[in-house]
Amino acid sequence: MERDDGGGGPSSSPSSMVCCQADNCTADLSEAKKYHRRHKVCEFHAKAPIVIVASLHQRFCQQCSKFHELLEFDDMKRSCRRRLAGHNERRRRSSSEAQFDGSS
């Protein structure tokens, strides 16, 4: 049997319910995937384009694994602009390195 204490330390118990961070969400994450339990977001709100968290319109960022305000995203993308810029930079760098390796 796999033991999962939820990362909450000695005070967490299997009977304590882990809930989604979205305002008024009643989803019980105790049986959810480990990723959703770890980040305290239900599957629905992890993919939703607009989620109200702490009374603010936000979206869950797949790169950061946390909620950001909508203005930090481009269009309907699921990664915030800052993390997406870093991702794109790494891709550009690796493709230019591959181009130099192929020209030798």
3D structure, described in words:
Pfam families: SBP. It is found in: Nucleus. It contains three helices and three strands, in the order ααβββα. A hairpin with a 2-residue loop joins strand 1 and strand 2 (56-61). It has a single domain (29-102), classed as DNA-binding domain of squamosa promoter binding protein-like 12 (lacking the second zinc- binding site), CATH 4.10.1100.10. Helices cover 32% and strands 12% of the residues. Strands 1-2-3 form a three-stranded antiparallel sheet. The longest helix is centred in the C-terminal third of the chain and has 22 residues, at 81-102. The protein has helices at residues 34-39, 43-47, 81-102, and strands at residues 51-53, 56-61, 66-69.
Biggest β-sheet: count, sense, barrel? 3 strands, antiparallel
User: Which strand order spans the largest sheet, edge to edge or round the barrel?
Assistant: 1-2-3
Question: CATH first level: which class?
Answer: Few Secondary Structures
The CATH homologous superfamily name equals Transcription factor, SBP-box domain
| Approximate helicity band | 25-40%
CATH topology: DNA-binding domain of squamosa promoter binding protein-like 12 (lacking the second zinc- binding site)
Number of domains: 1
The residue ranges in which pLDDT falls below 50 over 5 or more consecutive positions are: 1-13
Indicate the overall shape: elongated
By DSSP, the count of extended strands is 3
Name of the CATH architecture: Irregular
How far is the N terminus from the C terminus? 54 Å
User: What class, by secondary structure content?
Assistant: alpha+beta
Radius of gyration: 18 Å
Can you give the mean pLDDT?
Answer: 85
Strand content: 5-15%
Order of helices and strands: HHEEEH
H/I helix tally: 3
Domain SBP-type: 17-94
InterPro entries: SBP-like, SBP_dom, SBP_sf
Region (Disordered): 83-104
GO molecular function: DNA binding; zinc ion binding
